[in-house]
């Protein structure tokens, strides 16, 4: 069989042989490309900014309309909620301060769906005015902290050990409606993995009572 | 000339033709690979963490020795200074609060070297106790801010419009010696570029007097 094919090829002119070889290579490369792009999950790299122009967008938020203001705090919050709610199996939250109801409600919804949610919080801020940490506990989400004069100053979460969201942005109403802040979302392994390991180490170190 | 080459190829057996085509392709791919890897700058993705264990490392910092504590605040600060001092043409700093002398001195050294340094600072924090913003101004570094009830809460810099360093970490002595904090360094275009554009927009919006 292979002998026949080689014999047939030998009888053809050079241009035909070269053409067939090139066509076969294109088919192999294309099949490989489509196979890989199907298997590989989408790579995420996204940046959001909060500015002092965010507060002016409150009205459109109530109408849930689309916003064309690039620094729109409400569009950013909706986007962060989408990332929280994209969790399928785990959601690890490490947060200095959470008073924003939209974000807290997203976390509670994910927990109700059966996703394994874990929260690390700052010991003093957890008991501060408007903090949602007590609400998390009431609904059965495990929360850990550490009694310390130092601040648990992180503001990140990791979805399914795969997507990291982090930045300067505190999850408060003040940060939403005026501060200049940033949030980075990434699925880059060499950035997500250290955060994932750091969360695991803090989770082991911290306790339920702080 | 081309006719002669084609004629020579036609006279050869199929196996020889296929071998020569494949060899030529390998040579072309290899040349392309080495050419690209020479032109393309090194990709940077790095994560640093600060923990409550940082303070214990003060002694080794004074000896400038190597530290094996992963959360060592002083090793992190040295690393951040290295990134600041790697600036060749521009250094854009957007910072809530800077009281750490090591970081401030690195910025001053870069400025003295002739690098174009620009600083955006929080209006109230710039005049706070220990703030290095007045020192920057005294040495001729342009500083801009905006009078506002809101916080300029970013903590990032961009080196040569190419490397971004950002995180939850404030450039203070307290953050260095105890808080749990993170810093991400990246040269990913789709993350660095939005920060670069954001800095340019704030620079245009803000003024020298706030």
UniProtKB/TrEMBL annotation, chains A, B:
Native source species: Gryllus longicercus
PANTHER family in the cross-refs: CARDIOLIPIN HYDROLASE, MITOCHONDRIAL CARDIOLIPIN HYDROLASE
Residue ranges of the TM segments: 17-35
InterPro entries: PLD-like_dom, PLD_domain, PLipase_D/transphosphatidylase
GO BP, one annotated term: lipid catabolic process
Name this protein carries in UniProt: Mitochondrial cardiolipin hydrolase
Lineage of the organism: Eukaryota, Metazoa, Ecdysozoa, Arthropoda, Hexapoda
Origin: domain of life: Eukaryota
Pfam families: PLDc_2
A Gene Ontology molecular function term of the record: RNA endonuclease activity producing 5'-phosphomonoesters, hydrolytic mechanism
GO cellular component: mitochondrion
Protein keywords: Hydrolase, Lipid degradation, Lipid metabolism, Membrane, Transmembrane, Transmembrane helix
Keyword flag Lipid metabolism: yes
Domain PLD phosphodiesterase: 148-175
